[in-house]
Specification:
- By secondary structure, this protein is of the alpha+beta class.
- The protein contains four helices and eight strands, in the order αββαβββαβββα.
- The chain has a domain of 114 residues: Beta-Lactamase (2-Layer Sandwich), CATH 3.30.450.40.
- The longest helix has 19 residues.
Length: 164
């Protein structure tokens, strides 16, 4: 894909990515990138520590689902892992705030264009050393305090995996 955009490198070796490009690729300030070379091309790819532990994290999430019967979605870089669904912009904005979001009313929650879940919802960002690694979305009709507690436990387990 060629966009035809030309940018100069400044004296420190930096290039500014256009706002439209950052918005369309969900690139936010502070995001980590992996830089690689393919022949004469420089390739920038969003990097997530958690992606290398994806199978282990999914196994843990599946254990939580079997015990709690919650709907649990694991999100990295605005994609729901295991489905490649893109989360809705309003959900992404909540995640980018890096704060726990709690909705204690039982309502229909539209997570992506194709995923709608009814229940109380907790969005728990996974932040390690001030880096936003991903997020957990838990939805259930359970007591909101139980959902929050399970969110914290799951978040702490995932952070301990990422911190190894």
């Amino acid at each position: 894909m060629h966009t035809g955009i030309v940018r100069k490198i400044d004296e420190l070796g930096r290039i500014v990515l256009p706002k439209e490009l950052r918005k369309s690729l969900n690139i936010n300030s502070g995001d980590d990138f992996q830089i690689s070379i393919d022949e004469n091309k420089i390739i920038l790819e969003k990097y997530s520590k958690l992606e290398s532990f994806e199978d282990k994290i999914n196994n843990i999430i599946n254990c939580f689902i079997s015990v709690t019967n919650y709907k649990i979605y694991f999100v990295i870089n605005n994609k729901i892992i295991n489905s490649n669904e893109i989360i809705r912009e309003n959900i992404n904005k909540l995640i980018q705030e890096r704060k726990v979001y709690i909705s204690d009313k039982i309502i229909k929650n539209q997570i992506s264009d194709n995923i709608i879940e009814e229940g109380r919802m907790v969005i728990y960002p996974i932040v390690l050393n001030s880096d936003l690694l991903g997020s957990l979305i838990l939805i259930s009709n359970d007591n909101i305090n139980n959902i929050i507690t399970n969110s914290k436990i799951l978040n702490n387990i995932i952070k301990s995996i990422a911190n190894k």
